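Database export, one record per block. Field names are fixed; values are copied verbatim from the stored entry.
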Amino acid sequence: MIFFAYPLVASIVYSFTRYNQLQEPQFVGLLNYRFLFTQDPQIGAAVVNTIWFVVILVPVRIVCALLVAGLLSRAKTATGFWRTLFYLPALVPPVASVVAFVFLFNPGTGPVNQILRFFGIDGPLWFNDPAWSKPSLVIMGVWVMGDIMIIFLAALLDVPRDLYEAASLDGANGPQQVRHITLPTIAPVIGFAVVTGVIAALQYFTEAAVASGVASGKATIGGGTAAQLGYPGTSLLTYTELLYQHGFANFQFGYASAMAVVLFVITAIVLVFTMRRISVFRPEES
């Protein structure tokens, strides 16, 4: 009640007010929502970037994690070593991961571009290029996919081996076994990964905010960061990053609460739609 119900109700109440935590909240009706949907000049870029992460980052992480889990499930030697190696990046704190990747992909001194130059390739600007900033975060997201990979690995190891043996006797080849045995069996786990991935992508904040600050040369987040908000340009400006900026840098808590309420409603709608579309969440069809 204290840590969930009260903040949720308070956000809804404050979304109808002008509130800066220094003065008493002033009721303004739907003014915050009207500004959000019709006048905020940054909301369009923030929404587009957030949708990009939902549509691109989530599927890429799931596919790569599933492929790696499939390879690890068939490893014959040093299985513990390989599983630990692929899972370790998931234990690195997100801020440290972003700082390390911004250093690795530094266009001037980073080792990635230096290796590319050795082969005669001019590397991109990565986090300093609006066209490459989001793909750079996707690469980092794949590197820290161990949390999903380990779940997929457990699901793959739990698939009954006699099903594969029976399919082999019936003449099914490898791709057919994956399509008709592996994927249907682990479908609930894939559905879980999709739902949790969509939730995380809609709330994508830390990686984008830290990458913007570090790549622009300012390693601070919050007040005084308007110049690098979403750097480069607005390519890394996410919805939650804009919400944080309004609430904790500009002290527009009423407007930030309205943004939070809208995000909550949209997330609920997306999740209901997703769970209705995935048959594993419908017992009568499973």
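Remark 1: The beta strands are 17-18, 26-27.
Remark 2: The first strand starts at residue 17 and ends at 18.
End of record.
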